Amino acid sequence: MGNLIEIRDLAKVYARGKQKVEVLHHIDLNIAEGDFLALMGPSGSGKTTLLNLIGGLDTPTAGTISVGGQRIDQLGAGPLAKWRAANVGFVFQFYNLMPMLSAQRNVELPLLLTKLSSAQRKQNAAIALKLVGLDERASHKPSELSGGQQQRVAIARAIVSDPTLLVCDEPTGDLDRQSAEDVLGLLRTLNREHGKTIVMVTHDPKAAEYANHTLHLDKGTLVEQALA
Ligand SMILES: Nc1ncnc2c1ncn2[C@@H]1O[C@H](COP(=O)(O)OP(=O)(O)OP(=O)(O)O)[C@@H](O)[C@H]1O
Ligand SMILES: [Mg+2]
Questions:
Q1: Closest ligand to Cα 203
Q2: Does 16 contact ligand 1 (Cβ within 6 A)?
Q3: pLDDT digits (tens, 9 = 90+) for 35-77
Q4: Ligand 1: does its nearest atom lie under 6 Å from the Cβ of 202?
Q5: Closest to 144 measured CA to CA, from 80, 99, 185
Q6: 156 near 148, Cβ under 8 Å?
């Protein structure tokens, strides 16, 4: 299979007053369609920054990013948001669910940006909740769910619009071992059986084992191996 993502000579520099912080430099990376990639590296090495660029949450200072043959590095905020809504699902360490809404309503949220009817939104959200094994918890609010269950609701929300790409930033960082394995098993199923391409940042070597392979960032560049 071909590359879903092609990154060339990518750089990200944050300007803070007169000080420039070069967070990523000379990143060259291909990610094959259907891959499950783990991204590791020390705190502050630029993992979240790179993930956010891949998912179109941020734009680079220099270099190019194509996803599915489309350049996203030059898109303005509006077109980029549209592109994200159609192509990317996000999973974060702290779930980012809306506390006042039921699991069902949380999963429906991304569909408010689409043309689907309210009945279709409900149905698609119910399908996604079933896929993550939480159809019986659909009416629960986040505070009425365990951490692992909340993360599975967040995964249902990430997949409800059927995106090609899932980007996950330390999705098991706040979970106990068993819940982490449930979430990782679910990501593996989404990769193997539903064809999702996954890029996952993690600090946990056991989590990285669920991926097909692992890349390491160090001080803003990709390195062959983790430095001991
Ligand atoms: N908005 C910003 N302005 C200035 N510097 C930033 C900004 N966001 C991130 N940085 C800097 O960029 C560097 C990389 O941050 P990033 O969040 O990508 O690291 P990380 O590898 O995800 O770390 P962690 O494992 O702790 O999550 C850090 O030195 C950070 O201080
Ligand atoms: Mg981070």
A1: 1
A2: yes
A3: 999 999 999 999 999 999 999 999 999 999 999 999 999 999 9
A4: no
A5: 99
A6: no
pLDDT in tens, 161-187: 999 999 999 999 999 999 999 999 999
Ligand 1 centre and the CA of 12: distance in Å?
Answer: 11
Domain ranges (residues) in the chain: 33-61+75-219
50: buried, middle or exposed (CB in 10 Å: 19+, 13-18, 0-12)? buried
Cβ of residue 14 lying under 6 Å from some atom of ligand 1:
yes
| pTM across the whole model | 0.95
Take residue 164 and report the two structure tokens written for it: 């090609």
Give percent of the chain above pLDDT 70. 98
95 — pLDDT class (breaks 50, 70, 90): very high
Superfamily grouping for domain 33-61+75-219:
P-loop containing nucleotide triphosphate hydrolases (3.40.50.300)
For residue 190, the CA-to-ligand 2 centroid distance in Å is 23
